[in-house]
Request: fold
Amino acid sequence: MIRRSLSRLALACALTLAAALPLRAQVEIQQVTSPGGIDAWLVEDRNIPFTALEIRFRGGASLDDPEKRGAVRLMTGLLEEGAGEMDAQGFARAVEGVAADFSYSAGDDTVSVSARFLTETRDEAVDLLRASLVAPRFDPQAIERVRAQALSAIRSDQQDPGVLASRAFDRLAFGDHPYATPADGTLESVQALTREDLVAAHDAALARDRVVVGAAGDISAEELGRLLDDLLGDLPAEGAPLPGDVAVEMPGGTRVVEFDTPQSVAVFGHAGLARDDPDFFPAYVLNHIVGGGGFESRLMQEVREKRGLTYGVYSFLAPKDHAALHLGRVASSNDRIAEAISVIRDIWRDVAAGGVTEEELADAKTYLTGAYPLRFDGNGPIANILVAMQLDGLPMDYVETRNDRVRAITLEEIDRVAAELFDPERLTFVVAGQPEGLEDAAAVSQ
Reply:
């Protein structure tokens, strides 16, 4: 008990110290390949005796069998519910005993595993993490407990207008692709999942041929190489086939999901740009100006500040692995949502036709270059950045060149991208609520 308490205190102190240290002036990334052939990126830092490890498995919830939607999500939620000889409580006590911290999640394109552990208990922590990935128990009691949590979340989502609007938008955008249906599954599909389905989802999603790793902290390249083989070497060599790409063809106009609420939520957007598109970088800066820059963005200024139509409105680029969207969201009272939509449409037309101003571009450059170093504020965030860079196909020197790329963007480049990316005719709104004044809107089912 004393050792456990001291270990937990040591990890807490290490995390606090990491947050208090000055930002690194330079991030030196090492390419690591384990003896067994597993690749990773590493930023070594011996100042604090703990390591952050971020693991991603490509594929994620998109690997679900259409008839077993929700299987990958449910399986991922069970990875910490017992492993090897330990049941759920035993596993939790063992992780706490070495002052480690593990988390598991599944999105459309990845299963994510995060780990934080002290140097002095690294071997024990890695053994526990390995057991959760390689030998999860999927005990009946644990399955029913986590299934109940999943079903409760699904029921809650059915009463959330934002979720309803997003899901209806996805159905319009993605057709029969896995992206068109919720990764959580439905009440019917999740209720029907068996233990065999979860084992199959595990073997499909957690495989060595799709793993991406980022690490930061008190560990050398040689030590990380051995760790990777110990941790991941016994996973299946290959997972299930990845889904194909899907072309996004939005219909334009407005759709309404009828829902009894005093405030409507609208999700809007159309096709976007893939992360490897040569225009993605200027498009990112452009979106910051239009809808990603908080209170200074055009959307916030026109929809909230000048007209008071909403508390918040924003837009963002959403480059998934197999499709790309340019999305936004706004909420307003039922009697004012039509005006908010009209203003957003006007902004979309103005940006497509006239681009942005020199002042807007200069302000965006100042903010984006100044804020970027603040992301590297500890081992955990750095490990996250390393794994995200690999998933996005960015070069290792991106950390050093990123701000120069921002500064090099010209107004002519931004305006060209604006004319090509912003598509007022394809801009589609899906509104969940009881909106007034949208006479031409078509109804869609939940």
